[in-house]
Amino acid sequence: MKRGFNSALPAGAAAAVPDPARAAILCAADRIMAGEWEMLGVVRSDMKAPDWFHDPDTGRRSDPGTYAFRVKHRDEGAVGNVKQVWEVNRLQHLTLLATAWYLTRDDAYAERVDAQLRSWWAANPFLSGVNWTSGIELGVRLINFAWIRRLLREWPGAADLFEHNDLAVHQIRWHQRYLAAFESRGSSANNHLIAEAAGQLAASCAFPWFTESARWRRQSAALLEKSLRDNTFPSGINRELASDYHGFVFELGAFAAVEAAAAGFPVSEDCWRLLAAMADGMAALVDARLRPPRQGDSDEGRVVLLDAPEHNRWPTLLSLAAGLFGPLAWWPPVVPDAGRVLGMAVAGAPRTVTGRPDARPSRFADAGITILRTDPASAPEIWCRCDGGPHGFLSIAAHAHADALSVEVRHDGVDILADPGTYCYHGEPEWRTYFRSTIGHNTVEIGGRDQSPQGGPFMWAGQARTRQVESSAPQTVWTAEHDGYLAVLRPPASHRRTVSLDQAGRGIEITDVIDGAGHAVRLAFHLGPDVTAELAGDRVALTWPVGPGTASAWLDLPRELSWSLHRGETGPILGWYSPGLGQRTPAVTLVGSGQCTRDSPLVTRLQFPEARQTDGFSASGSAAGVEKPKMGPVEAIDIQAEAR
Q: How far apart (Å, rounded) are the C-alpha atoms in residues 376 and 124?
């Protein structure tokens, strides 16, 4: 079969990339060329010639000659931090270098791509070493192979690197043979299976060089569409209920669909409709700064790097989605970038998808997600995510946390009541346990137990069932309850929570009702890393920086509990925030301890007096006409000094 690569970017696509995106891409590419790159919180200094088996986090190096299915990739002693190893082996940094060549025609970028691809292909023969142990990694690599070849199409050495290079041809076929033979099943039929199908579809369309290519294309297209349906609620929310994986799965589906369209084998209209629903879900969930919720696990997974990477991937995903489907009138503004320009150059005109929502959704009942937010005209935005849905996806709910009835609250995109995040997957079990625990979220722990008992780093021995209670005020009030403690405590106990947003008064009230008696109770509120807190009895003064000034809020806590403040503690672990995988920073956690008492609701009030010094608010942190909550003489806190 004659080999070639016919899916080209049209003339003028490079010129259409906005100047800010171009400048950011070249800055990032030059950093890679200099040998430095940050991956999952670790700055690597070996990017001129990476060691494909070295973990810079632990310093360990796995044996490249070990048969793949004998590699214990979850054993940090054997391979180091496998996420660090796999991240560089996704080769996304080479796609970024190829983008830099496409924009500049500077051959130094292409030559570096050439050298590192040849190095990778030679160092990783079929089924040898840690880089052949997980199908998701192969799927992501295949999509990047396709984009690297496309971006380098006009470089004189491109054909010799790919279709005239027997080793490259073998690698592309080996990757697809692996995915065809070792399909993820059972509890792994989540984002892993979608990545495998997406990579297989993209490669069989971009590189139709093999006798199996047509069969692989048909099978992977069907598998991708089925898996996307299985993994997505009708509302468009990903069933893993881990926000980061929603974006990752959308990106996988979008790039596979774009590749199929370019090859003349488009996915079905139902598949495009599902991808549009996922995009609209993302647009509905984000806050004023286009930040998604921090629900469940996050490993900052990306598929293709056509733009300089940011910790928040969602603006780039929304930009791509806006190109593919067109933004609806209620969407937040998104800035065009290279991914949108280049993706649309391959995909063609935006697709018309019917049935999209006329107004911004606030409730996703099937996923149990409710967003309470102030009216856009009432800036700065108060944004509150309420968790009242299923525990997670499939029997082990791998990426779920024990966070039923938890809340996140942000003020103008700043974490106030924060979801602490994920921090790690492997190697540090005590930290993995904490960041998944009930006490590690803004909810109630009863009897010293997690609502859902953990059965391993990616397993659960039981799953709390949560039920949302309908409210007559869907934009401002949310009520839900869960049964996680009914079967494990004697006497049994249940937890019901109501969250109310006061639009006019710019405050949030959280009411917790525990139906049970005699058990120890801990109610936790985790603050964002930028928030400082002064606790006096049951009242907390909160402050955080805003530009050259500060903002403030008051948190009135239930008097029935005894309150303590924790920050950066390790015995036991408490008071931490993870901005990304492999990263943690001390942050304040407020813990109220006491006993269950029937018919005695615990009421928490969070009040924002809008302390924006730059917007005409007083230095004391109170808006004109808004009375600052009064504190007793023992509770007095010098907020003016904090502001100064």
A: 52
Question: Three-state DSSP class for 524?
Answer: strand
pLDDT tens for residues 373-412?
999 888 899 999 999 999 999 989 999 999 999 999 999 9
Query: Which CATH class, in words, describes the domain spanning 363-643?
Result: mainly beta
Tell me, what amino acid is at 131?
N
Closest by Cα among 189, 249, 226 to 396: 189
Name the CA dihedral angle for 295, 526, 479, 601, rounded to a multiple of 10 degrees: 160
Structural tokens at position 596:
């269950």
Task: Give how far Cα 481 sits from Cα of 40, 334, 489, 512, 595, Å.
Answer: 36, 36, 16, 10, 19
Separation of CA 481 from chain center: 26
For 592, list phi and psi in degrees, rounded to 5: -105, 125
pLDDT tier at 598 (50, 70, 90 boundaries)?
confident
Q: Are 577 and 528 in contact (CB under 8 A)?
A: yes
The bridge status of strand 520-526 relative to strand 588-595 is: antiparallel
Q: Are 583 and 43 in contact (CB under 8 A)?
A: no
Domain ranges of the chain: 19-347, 363-643
Confidence grade of residue 458 (pLDDT, cut at 50, 70, 90): very high
Residues paired with 567 in a beta bridge: 588
The total of other beta-carbon atoms located within 10 Å of residue 387's CB is 29
Q: Which class for 466: exposed (0-12), middle (13-18), buried (19 or more C-beta within 10 A)?
A: buried
**Rounded Cα–Cα distance for residues 144 and 124 (Å):** 16
d(CA 179, CA 177): 6
Whether the per-residue pLDDT at 321 is higher than 90: the answer is yes
Tell me the Ramachandran region of residue 105: left when phi exceeds 0, alpha when psi lies from -120 to 50, beta otherwise: left
pTM to 2 decimal places = 0.93
Task: Residue 37: name the closest of 341, 309, 234 by CA.
Answer: 309
In this structure, are residues 421 and 435 in contact, taking their beta carbons and an 8 Å threshold?
Answer: yes
Question: What residues does 589 pair with on adjacent strands?
Answer: 526, 566
List b or e across 241-273, with b for residues whose CB sees 16 or more CB atoms inside 10 angstroms.
Answer: bbbbbbbbbbbbbbbbbbbbbbbebbbeeebbb
The closest alpha carbon to 484, from 455, 439, 445, belongs to: 445
Residue 148 has which token pair? Answer: 């690297």
DSSP-derived 3-state class of residue 389: coil
Q: 417 vs 272, 321, 376, CA distance in Å?
A: 36, 29, 21
| DSSP SS3 for 398 | coil
Answer yes or no: CATH 1.50.10.100 is held by domain 19-347: yes
Which contiguous run of DSSP H or E holds residue 432? helix 429-436
Cα 231 from Cα 223, distance rounded (Å): 12
Q: Residue for token digits 């909810």?
A: 443
**Which contiguous run of DSSP H or E holds residue 570?**
strand 569-570
Name the token pair of 52. 């494909």
Q: What pLDDT is recorded for position 623?
A: 33
- For CA atoms 220, 226, 228, 230, give the dihedral sign: negative
> How many Å apart are CA 118 and CA 165, to the nearest integer?
9
Question: What pLDDT band is residue 114 in, cutting at 50, 70 and 90?
Answer: very high
pLDDT of residue 196: 98
Give the CA count within 13 Å in the CB-facing half-sphere of 329. 3
Residue 190 to residue 186: CA distance in whole angstroms: 9
